[in-house]
What we know:
This protein is of the alpha+beta class. It has 18 helices and 24 strands.
Amino acid sequence: MHPYRTHTCGALGKDQAGETVRLSGWVFRKRDHGSLLFYDLRDHYGITQVVIQPENPLFDKCQHLKQESVITVTGRVEPRSPETVNTKLATGEIEVIAEDIVFESVAAQTPLYLAGDDEGPEDLRLTYRYLDLRRDTMQRNITLRSDIIASLRQRMTGHGFREFQTPILTCSSPEGARDYLVPSRLHPGKFYALPQAPQLFKQILMVAGFDRYFQIAPCFRDEDARADRSPGEFYQLDVEMSFVTQEDVFAVVEDVLHGVFCEFANGKRVDELPFRRIPYSEAMVKYGTDKPDLRIPIELSDISELFRTSDFKAFSGAVANGAVVRAIPVKAIAGKPRSFFDRLVEYAQSIGAKGLAYLVWSDGAVKGPIAKFLKPDELEVIKTQCGVGDGDVVFFMCDAPDAANRISGDIRVKLGRDLEIIEQDVFRFCWVVDFPMFERDEETGQIQFSHNPFSMPQGGLEALDGDPLAVKAFQYDIVCNGTELSSGAIRNHSPEIMLKAFELAGYKREEVEEKFSFLLNAFRYGAPPHGGIAPGVDRIVMLLADATNIREVIAFPMNQRAQDLMMNAPGEVSEKQLRELHIRLRKPVTPEPEAT
RNA sequence: GGGGGCGUAGCUCAAUUGGUUAGAGUCCCAGACUGUCGAUCUGGAUGUCGCGGGUUCGAGUCCCGUCGCUCCCGCCA
């Protein structure tokens, strides 16, 4: 017999009744009846009830054994009597009567209690991650992650892609996020950087003629965390293709993502293919954001022109000064109490709105604070444009375009949540396309890249001769349920167009030639038109695991302050190590207490 | 860098308007119990109220500072 197990803890049933088996696992729950002792023995695969009878010489020791100890049990599989069958357990029709028990690893009192619902404080969970990961939900999340990644790989190779490795030690890139730096021992004063993404390497692989690249790629960015953004490192399904249009990229990514979401949706619905395409400018008006949650059945619209000529001076004056008005129509809430509207106005103000007007269609009349300023035909236009009728409400907010979008988008999401009208059990996807190539910096007034400087401007070189702010890029995002899964682009493979684009963003020719010399050079020896995308693996797993926090789908995440509480990273290093790296520390000076 | 929330027993949380010896569940310990399955019953132990200062006759509660965690803004080409 195998020294540890003949079966796993999820494997036994009536078929094995009468057999002598061996199981190994953790002591999960104990039920001590004084003269009869039950263990729930747990391993990765399941739970089996072990019965320890008073005749067993190890009975006393088993009574006092701590939960989470690891034991090996040898015993006979007994069918349970009908009244003692546990239908909640896959192995609930049988139990194992312990004959011999080996105490492989006796556990001390655990700082986390694993047999209950409480997860405990997150810093304890992260410090004792090996305990926390034993929980069923964490086992499921982490195995789901593994299964999703395996499926992604299979689907990508099925589309003719090959997986490549690219360097982890590379050099700092002048654009983008803050880098993680690694000092060089052989080159005093010089540093490697961890890649923020394998962006340039994958483009070089296209120049090298490999045609279709993918990688489950680790990416490192030294930026602050969010609930859906782990500090330090994260993984992307990094994809690049040669001789493709935007639609070719979409076709592959749609097939892979749709496939993987259907495979792991666990009963939830997934949008049919093809996914909706929404131009950036339309998304900003209809949803107030470039990552719309399409599960919320509210569509905003621009109603500035109507208010420009209206008698409502607060709005018409603002519109004359460049402000816009957004209408937020909501079905069937005319009957909500006054307090509902007051609270929403309060919320709007708390996120920076100057106010929030509204009209209520009720009992054939139009009511609300601004109704008296609007003529009947104006009300009719609003009613038609917003598609509302009796019982419905339209909110209005007026501000500069950026603020109006942001605030009305936030209100849309808040209404969705508060009214509980967000569709459940569905994954709603869309592509957001036609991002602007450039934007104006609010403070300096400078033209700058709004997203990726290496994207191809639509219209090519000619388009760059006109108004830069009117230039769109072959730049796209894929969004699921309000989560941005990925950005991608058709790349700019022409040195001439690239130099021109950078020039518009205020970079001198020589500067660009110097910073990106290898890329420009590569493009000067025959570069295929190419493009790609890089969906975030952690976020895909998060959506499919129905997790609200990205740390729930990462085995060993760092906390919000970018510390690994289990490993104690980042940690100090010895003076010898520093000397080898030619580094002298320059710690922040702690202010001395003031003399009195 | 900025803003919000939280911080009371190992864990989850309570403590009235500032007022007696800071409570409950759970965990833990001891005892009882041969059919439980988050076993049950009885008893017991457990506190730097995050830390420092201030106001007050009196502070877990109010004020100031600080630390930690978390969510958000900035940031994330």
